[in-house]
């Protein structure tokens, strides 16, 4: 079956890592018609906006996209394309699997959990203003509807992937109303999923526990900001941002993208690790039902990881992005 999928290369290393995953997916034989559109700096230059309407229209039509990272200027310039996309397409769940691989140097082994991050509200709502000249205020928005929706999503994911525990992260001891509402939504949902263990942990304690014993976790559900921070922390536990994939999921719509950003410090040098983009591509293939092809790519990746010489520099190897991609394709050939 042919699939129409929107493809956005993005900025910086996005161009390199998305080229890599596209080449691998095309080689896998999946029947995909890529609808290539531009977002980010290049779109800003060409269309005067980093997120032209035809980009969101393409994703709305195809219902699936693969996206590279987009640079977001700090403090000035355009607003985050990612935040805008997530809001416009109502991509309410950000799913970030964290898995350690044999052969990859990492602080921890045998790690396998998924972070489910609420993607539409919290301090990312963009409601900010100056109060006079010397103070600024950001509004943290937490609603019952979005909190229950994300908690239910986390429990459903646990059931689907045969995971036994959901851990809800919050700071309700201080933010009694906003995080309190998120926590109560999780407690309410947990009563509908008695087959799955439920626990709640305060975000500061969770940061320590994740660093000490990440093997204790299976599904972690969190409001937007804590989910964002904990997923970078978690990527650090299993070998770095080059290994962390992600998906933004809404109602019958999904945008797959690596967790990392556009990495301007290494962009254009053919040294970025495309693994997080490739793992995002594997998630995409599974989502569209191409499970066998997804597993073939994952198997090839696992084999490559066993031989450091075939890896990129961040994993202790010496291959460039393109050469690493070719190694995976050679491995897929068998
Ligand atoms: P970053 O993730 O781009 O880079 C952080 C560090 O990790 C850098 O040292 C970088 O070289 C390294 N790194 C990242 N990905 C790597 C890879 N695949 N292989 C090897 N090393 C890798 O974070 P940043 O520097 O804070 O952000 C740069 C830009 O990206 C900013 O404009 C930010 O807003 C944007 N950003 C976009 C997204 C997105 O589009 N989803 C996500 C995060 C950041």
Automatic annotation (TrEMBL):
Keywords: Oxidoreductase. One of its GO terms (molecular function) is NAD binding. PROSITE patterns: IDH_IMDH. Residues 4-328 form the Isopropylmalate dehydrogenase-like domain. One of its GO terms (biological process) is tricarboxylic acid cycle. It comes from the Bacteria. PANTHER family: DECARBOXYLATING DEHYDROGENASES-ISOCITRATE, ISOPROPYLMALATE, TARTRATE, ISOCITRATE DEHYDROGENASE [NAD] SUBUNIT ALPHA, MITOCHONDRIAL. Belongs to the isocitrate and isopropylmalate dehydrogenases family. This is Isocitrate/isopropylmalate dehydrogenase family protein.
